[in-house]
Input
Amino acid sequence: MTTAIIDYGSGNLRSAEKSFQRAAREVGGGEIVVTADPEVVRHADRVVLPGVGAFRDCRDGLHAVPGMVEALGAHKDAGKPFLGICVGMQLMVSVGREYGETPGLGWIDGAVERIVPDDPALKIPHMGWNALSLAREHPLFEGVTGGDHVYFVHSYHVVTDDPAHRLAHTRHGGEITAAIGRDNLFGTQFHPEKSQTVGLMIIGNFLRWRP
Output
């Protein structure tokens, strides 16, 4: 079994690779590869799309790798597990509204909107540890409970058109989407690779996941 972490010039690849390798050793999760080769992505059993920075820059970087967007679409259509992390999660939705409107992959209907806290004293970006509130059960949250803390760094979050596609939220001057998903697709706004025990649990669940 192979899990491909996509290298498209955005994302904390070394940290992600180490965390996924550690989780794979613990759960028998197979091989972890970091790759910019769309054919490796197309044939992988699982795909991880990380992302750090501005939505448009990440989107442009992904499209700059010949054949990568098509390989991602083929992986998604085959029903194989997909995990987007931070901006990698944001790219799953219809549009990003950071520095204008930029189309996303359109796999989940929704938009990436700037966080506007109801308390002006709260700082943006939303950075640091915050508690999860789980909207419903999901295999990737096995062993995770409401109130468990994970690590966030972001100024924008996803607003899904269908509330059922928001799997978890946190609070920072109002509710902020923490995880989205449907079918074989899952995304976290927080960084599981930086979220210590809880993050490793979620990564391990992903490596065992059979949608």
Summary: Residues 13-27 form the longest helix (15 residues). The chain has a mean pLDDT of 95. The two ends are 15 Å apart (CA to CA). The first strand starts at residue 2 and ends at 6.
